[in-house]
Amino acid sequence: MADSTKKYTHFNVTFPREYVAHIETNRPEKLNSFYQPMWLELRTILDTLSHSPDVRALILSGAGPRAFTAGLDVKAASTSLFAKDESLDGARVAARLRRDVLEFQDCVTALERCEKPVIVVMHGISFGLGIDLATAADIRICARDVRFSVKEVDIGLAADVGSLSRLPKVVGHFGWVKEVCLSAREFGAEEAARVGFVNSVHESKEAAIQAGLDLAVSIASKSPVAVQGTKELLNWSRDHSVQDGLRYTGVWNSAALQTKDISAALFSGIEKRTPTFEKL
């Protein structure tokens, strides 16, 4: 079992089942809004769990009853990301901002880059960065009380850490994506399910987290070679042609097919028992 004693400043990390990690954003008094130390810490957590042989599936949720996340902590950002240095010319200001934005993007991309499947469970307010995190995850589950918004135009900027790039590929309904991104209007659980943004809707936060946990346990019971390969190949194929995807799959599986997990899975099916797989 992964180390359950590791403490983080802004997140609770627990291991509720074998091979399952639960990351909980722990800033409920600020509606789990993010500022720079938080997204840096989240990247550290995800990179650590990605490489842990004791973890095969992850859940990400938010503490408290009111919000998955309200998005960016605008007050904190105004004194860091948006602070101006009058001694610098425009090109130098742009160079610094570009580095900051790219680092922020990389912290969100850590969900997608994580070798293990990431299930995000959303409830209450899920604005701005909440959509960025959700679209970088593999599976999205929500409570019926959720309120979504691609909020960035309301604070004077285009969403810049993932939503505009990933949401159209998650949903596949470009007109709807443009509408919600250009208007920043809120939408709820039923609409999110209808357009395919979320996989399932549950009556409460607790029920949604339980559903996420059940799914994580199911995924964690499979061959880690097969699961990690499936995530890698799906993400690759999303961004490449069918022929490129097939070719990469062939190269990937030329190594992965040598695993002992295949015979373990096949024989367990014949013998009608639950298979077990070595750590990866």
From TrEMBL:
A GO BP annotation: fatty acid beta-oxidation
Pfam families in alphabetical order: ECH_1
Record localization: Peroxisome
Keyword Lipid metabolism (UniProt): yes
GO CC annotations, alphabetized: mitochondrion; peroxisome
Pathway: Lipid metabolism; fatty acid beta-oxidation
Alphabetized UniProt keyword annotations: Acetylation, Fatty acid metabolism, Isomerase, Lipid metabolism, Peroxisome
GO molecular function: delta(3,5)-delta(2,4)-dienoyl-CoA isomerase activity
Gene3D superfamilies: 2-enoyl-CoA Hydratase, Chain A, domain 1, Lyase 2-enoyl-coa Hydratase, Chain A, domain 2
Stated family: Belongs to the enoyl-CoA hydratase/isomerase family.
Name of the protein described by the UniProt record: Enoyl-CoA hydratase
